[in-house]
Amino acid sequence: MSAVFETHQSTSPVILAFPHTGTDVPADIWERLNDNGRILADTDWHIERLYDGLLTNVTTVRATFHRYVIDANRDPAGVSLYPGQNTTGLVPETDFDGKPIWKDGEAPTEADIAFRLANFHAPYHAALAAEIARVKAIHGVAILYDCHSIRSLIPFLFEGRLPDFNVGTDMGRTCDKAIEAATFEACAKAEGYTSILNGRFKGGWTTRHYGRPKTGVHAIQMELAQVSHLATEAPPFDLDEGKAARLRIVLTDILNRLEALASTLPR
Q: What single string gives the DSSP state of each residue in 176-218?
C-alpha cells in the first residue's frame, strides 16, 4: 500500500492541512464502488495546487487517500458534525447529492471501517498531530489552517448557493478571536467574492479536535466554493487558471496575516 499521507516540514507557525484532496483508492475498495462512486465527485479538487507557494516555509500535511475510503475530517467515533442536518459519515454511503456510491451489497462493514481507521485515518492524524507539536515547540504556538472546497450548489446539504469563502471556527471556540477576525476581514474585503463566518460549515472534526487556543494551538477551516477556482463544478473538474490566480491573491493575504499574528498570540 502506498503512503497514505504526504508531509512537508518547515518553520512557519502556520500549518496547512489537506484532508480531502487525495484521489488514491486501493484496488479492492475501487472494485466495490459503483459507477457514481468512481467519479470521485466529492474531492477537494486542486486545492493543494491553489495553496502551493503562497506562504514561504509553511508546513503541509496532505492525505493521499480519497474520502470515500474514509473521511479524514470526520470524528473517528462516527459522531455527526452537524446533528439533524444532511451530511456524509466517516465512511460515506452516499455522495453529497445523497446518491449511493457503493455497488449493491458492497457498502463498507464495521470491520472495513475499523481497518480503514487504523490504516488511513489514524496515520494521517498522527502525522498532523506530530507537526502541530513540532511547530508549537518552535514558536510556542501553532496555527492550523484546514484547507477545503465544495461545490457551490448542493441542495442535499444546504439551500441556495454557498458563499465563496466559508470560514469555520466552531463559533469562535477553535482559535483566538484575532485569527478569526483577520481571516474573515480579508475575505470580506475581497472584491467580487462573498463570504460567511460559521455558516453552514463551522469547521470539521480536524478544526474542532485540534483547536485549543488556551494551549497555544489554534485551528481554522476555510471551505472554498469551487465556483471560485474551477472551470466547472462537474467532470472533469478542471482548474481555471485565471480564477485561481485571482483567488490566490486573497489566500496569500489571509496566510500572511495569520503568520504575522502568531508572534502576538498568548503563550
A: -HHHHHHHHHHHHTSTT--EEESSS----HHHHHH-BGGGTEE
Would you put residue 170 in left (φ > 0), alpha (ψ -120 to 50) or beta? left
Q: Indicate yes or no: pTM above 0.70.
A: yes
Residue 43: CB atoms within 10 A of its CB come to 18
Alpha-carbon span 60 to 64, nearest angstrom = 12
For residue 18, which of 40, 39, 49, 55 has the smallest C-alpha distance? 49
Which H or E run contains 6? Answer: strand 5-8
Contacts of 73 (CB under 8 A, 6+ apart): 19, 20, 67, 146, 148, 204, 205, 206
CA–CA separation, 218 and 117 (whole Å): 25
Q: What digits encode the pLDDT tens for the residues 61-104? A: 999 999 999 999 999 998 767 666 656 789 999 999 999 999 99
